[in-house]
Design goal:
The complex is a heterodimer of chains A (about 120) and B (about 120).
Chain A (H helix, E strand, L loop, with lengths): L2 E3 L4 E5 L4 E3 L2 E3 L4 E8 L5 E7 L5 E3 L5 E5 L4 E6 L8 E9 L8 E2 L3 E6 L1
Parallel strand pairs in A: 2-12
Antiparallel strand pairs in A: 1-4, 3-9, 5-6, 5-10, 7-8, 8-9, 10-11, 10-12
Chain B lengths: L4 E3 L2 E4 L5 E6 L6 E8 L3 E9 L2 E4 L8 E7 L2 E6 L8 E8 L10 E2 L3 E5 L1
Parallel strand pairs in B: 2-11
Antiparallel strand pairs in B: 1-3, 3-8, 4-5, 4-9, 5-6, 7-8, 9-10, 9-11
The chains are: A mainly beta (about 120), B mainly beta (about 120).
């Protein structure tokens, strides 16, 4: 079975500051890794994913995450945040390969960007 | 595309009543997932279907919960009888499985259930 730990339940930052949201996972098999974002009163949207290849993956709105197999981490970073980035961010994992699409989510990190 | 559609968006009911949540997946998607989100437990997978067949229902909390997918475009999650601890946001997600690439799950807007 897989598990995901998001170390910070809340992260307040000021606008234009850098941010890192931490995610660690546990799995006995190879995994795919994901970050989802949830804006208030909305469903989850995929932000970025790591399946294979380059360990650094980027989203279209400036976020990036790096897969670190030795540290079993997939931290999410952004060099300069905007007010509109205020949302809850979920790290998720699934077994790689085959036909298993079951996701295991962390408990989420609420990012609040203040002016 | 309309995305994943869930109804109702909000439901308030009294303990003991039957509750039915509905989901219409994205056209062409052949797998469907039901999740529950609470402050205490976060986002939990309840059950998922592939080609209308339940594949994994290990997350269904107890016999009061049941889910069906009678066809590729409709699924229901029923709670009977409902209890206050069932209060949560219930999400439905769908995905097109198969092929050579890994496809993402698309989530609906959720149903916020309050059981008094």
């Amino acid at each position: 079975a897989q598990s995901v730990t998001q170390l910070d339940s809340q992260v307040p930052v000021f606008e234009e500051a850098p941010v890192e949201l931490r995610c660690n996972y546990s799995s006995s098999v190879s995994v795919y890794l994901f970050w989802y974002v949830q804006y208030p009163n909305q469903g989850l949207q995929l932000l970025l994913k790591y399946l294979s290849g380059s360990t650094l993956v980027e989203s279209i709105n400036g976020f990036e995450a790096e897969f670190n197999k030795s540290q079993t981490s997939f931290h999410l970073r952004k060099p300069s945040v905007h007010i509109s980035d205020t949302a809850e961010y979920f790290c998720a994992v699934s077994k790689s390969g085959g036909s298993n699409y079951k996701l295991t989510f962390g408990k989420g990190t609420l990012l609040t960007v203040n002016p | 595309d309309a995305g994943v559609i869930q109804s109702p968006r909000h439901e308030v009911t009294e303990m003991g009543q039957e509750v039915t949540l509905r989901c219409k997946p994205i056209s062409g998607h052949n797998s469907l997932f039901w999740y529950r989100q609470t402050m205490m437990r976060g986002l939990e997978l309840l059950i998922y279907f592939n080609n209308n067949v339940p594949i994994d229902d290990s997350g269904m909390p107890e016999d009061r919960f049941s889910a069906k997918m009678p066809n590729a475009s409709f699924s229901t999650l029923k709670i009977q009888p409902s209890e206050p601890r069932d209060s949560a946001v219930y999400f439905c997600a769908s995905i097109r499985t198969g092929g050579s690439s890994y496809n993402e799950q698309f989530f609906g807007p959720g149903t916020r259930l309050t059981v008094l």
